[in-house]
Amino acid sequence: MTSLTLQSNALGELGERTLRKVRRRLMPLIVLLYFIAYLDRNNVGFAKLTMSEDIGLSAAAYGLGAGIFFLGYAILEVPSNAGMYRFGARKWLARILITWGLFAAAMALVNGEASYNIIRFLLGAAEAGFFPAILFYLTLWFPAAQRVTVLGIFILAQPISNALGAPVSGLLLQMDGILGLHGWQWLYIIEGIPAVLLGILTPILMTDKPRDAKWLADDEREWLATTMDAELAQKSAKGHHNFLAGLKDKRTLVYSALYFGLVCGIYGLGLWMPTIIAALGKFSTTEVGFITLIPYAVAAVFVYWWSKRADKTGKRAWHASASMILAGVGLVAAGYLLPVNAVLAMAGLVVSAMGIYGAIAPFLSMPSAALTGAAAASGLALVNSLGNLGGFVAPYAVGLLKDATGSNQSGLLFLSLCLAVTGVATYLYARRRREGDSSAQARAAVEGS
Q: Using one digit for the tens of pLDDT, what is the confidence trace for 330-388?
């Protein structure tokens, strides 16, 4: 009997019906919000295709500014999540959305390396707390055993945002000269506006806690609130509920270090993907946009299937690790094939995108299963804060390597090494922990009931 079957038996018809309704109500908005977040933090990769020449950015200077986003993000991550825990998800997410939308549009004002770095830093500071706030929000609505699939749906926004955003960004770059603005300026302005609009709508559309969910039937609302309260009480009895406990927990520090390696792959590839694809041939910005769509579209399909499989087996550590190793292999292949065959190099990039994005949901489900309540709010914020420093290191390192060698190959090999080491370390640390392999735990719970 599989872990998924055991979990379904434990939920019962009422639980299945309730969680199905919760998914349909909450996940479309959450995925849309993350879609916009990822679009605004990664569109600099497309803007670079024409912006760098206009304002005089070297590859290393571009990589530094792209990564500086994550310094602002990391510094304010934990304080921001404390604000979310204090004021509630609806109000705090609205604040985050509006401020980051304004700074995303303000990227149109950059005129040199200094202004580029400053606004990227402020954009990261404005968006700080968004991702862990969403992770924490999901811990309030979904039991740990069902969270990998939900996280997989959430993480789908990353490759989908890149897949859909790539051709749109490529087309927006063609608006060069309209009203006296460059195409890359229009890209920032047009893609920044949706975050502000969603910030205004979020307090209306989002519900803070299960007991406030008037859109659930009475028995559904009671089942969900009781189930989540019981899970919270179980962790609280073990001392995991206090806000400071999440910061002190050694698991938080370990998962932060592991997430650093994964994030190196996520943003090292994502922020340089348009440049790498442009190097495969003589393409217009529009063509680069549509070609960039391919690896992310394939990755989106893989993420959904892989996340469901991780939930079904309960082997989160194995799925996260295997994905990272797969991504490392794809990057090595792409690195060595870049100067040989463009089609095969593209296949390597597709495999790497599948592995990188496939690893995120099973990986993040582990710290979110290990902690709950206020400890989850602080712990997940710290994991995301320290881990996202990889988003600073990797783009800058790839830029330095490109300037030093004149090719993209060395950068791809560096990213491959980061992912391979992280994949092995994740498996060795989490494979025997409850949050890393929940199948035995689920079976024991059902057999003992």
A: 988 888 887 888 888 889 889 999 999 899 888 988 887 776 666 666 677 778 778 87
Within a domain: 2: no
Q: Token pair of 29, please?
A: 């908005």
Q: Quick check: is 374 in a domain?
A: yes
Residue 322's pLDDT band, with cuts at 50, 70 and 90, is very high
Q: What are phi and psi of 429, to 5 degrees?
A: -80, -45
List residues bridging with 315 in a β-sheet.
Answer: 437
- The token pair at 306 is 């892989």
CATH code of residue 26? 1.20.1250.20
pTM here is 0.69
pLDDT (0 to 100) of residue 182: 92
pLDDT in tens, 158-212: 777 777 877 888 888 889 889 989 989 999 999 999 999 999 998 888 888 888 8
CA-to-CA separations, 355 to 298, 359, 422, in angstroms, rounded: 11, 6, 13
CA geometry: angle 254, 127, 81, nearest 5 deg? 55
- Report the C-alpha gap between 252 and 240 in whole angstroms: 11
449 belongs to a structural domain: no
> Does 432 fall in a domain?
yes
Number of structural domains the chain divides into? 1
**Structural domain for 402, as ranges:** 21-442
